[in-house]
Amino acid sequence: MPAFSASPLHLSERLIRFLAKDGRTYYGDAILPSGVSDIAKATQARVIKGDIYGKHDVTEQIADVRLLLAPLAREDVKTVRCLGLNYSQHAKEVIGARTLGGEPISTNMPIPKYPVLFYKPVTALTGPFHNIPVPALAQEAEGVDYECELVAVIGKEARDVPESRALEYVLGYAVGDDVSHREWQLKRGGGQWALGKGFDGWAPFGPGIVSAGLIKDPQNLNISTKLNGKIVQESSTKDMIFGVAQTIAFLSQGTTLLPGDLIFTGT
User: Fold this and answer.
1) What is the C-alpha to C-alpha distance for residues 161 and 249, in angstroms, rounded to an integer?
2) How far apart are CA 116 and CA 131, in angstroms?
3) What is the DSSP string of 10-70?
4) What would the pLDDT profile of 45-61 be if each residue is shown by its tens digit?
5) How many angstroms separate the CA atoms of 144 and 135, rounded?
6) How many CB atoms lie within 10 A of CB 16?
7) pTM for this one?
């Protein structure tokens, strides 16, 4: 198969970043067996060379995957934006004893009129199979929790874009976990959520980035979390209060979104 050039926003169908068996780290287009859609099962990839946000080549070179890494290198990420309370069910739910040492806390918050935005540092990003460290500060009280989310990856500059064109700026989509500490988020953070969500390694995502060309409607995806083999979260992106297009349009008002910006769209 000859190499082919890709223009901006038309990258590989399933972008991965991986440690190969030759000891080198590559970007690649995941090769999946027939009938398999789970990128986590990729054992080989066609190596990508060039600017993943601009002109690049999916080459003939095939490399064996040893370990899937975060699908974007830290230097290729600009900001990590996150939405809170972006699913109707989550905005109404009770965060129970498993998160706050036996003291149930209800979010019991009204449906937000505007997206609830916070940021994570890029040092929170990590790969889909890496251990999540729990630092000493987070061990002072119970409260570590999971939030499985759809992650939109911006592929070109976006400023003041209308909702009707917002998806044109999406490079692709991944799955992320907005790891959170409820005690530090809700009780000790002084009203700011970032401290309870921004520890190193508390934003794992991957295992790859599926091209926006393959996901025409990001509001029609099932999303779930398994903990020790048990499903503990299960929903659909249809339940989002602010859909992906609406979110991008809103966040781009007066603020330029850059290639490599990640948007964790809530749980």
Assistant:
1) 5
2) 28
3) ---SEEEEEEETTS-EEEEEEE--TT---GGG--EEEEEEE-TTSSEEEEEEEEEEEEE--
4) 999 999 999 999 999 99
5) 11
6) 25
7) 0.91
